[in-house]
Amino acid sequence: MPTLRLLSAAALLTLAASASASSFLVTTDAIVGALKATSDLTSDATGSLRNNKIVREARDDAASFVASEGAIRGVKLESAFDAIRQQAPQLQASDAQLAQAILAI
Question: What keywords are annotated for this sequence in UniProt (predicted)?
């Protein structure tokens, strides 16, 4: 009888480890898939914005905006904000974040 219990316990531990490993793989695959989708979306948005003339021309205004902590808002920067929000409405970014992104492009 003790041998049967020992074998049963070993079988249950093996099944539990197998279920845990496959659960880990499914969770990992889901996280990696979500990160890839986010990365692809961000790459598409920044790639098209990098080629946008309005956004490129707003760099000086963006620098002034960031340096003044939002006090200086140039016309070119406002146009760039409008263009970005029309082109990528899924981006939920503040003006400060957009200005910093313009500087990074």
Answer: Signal
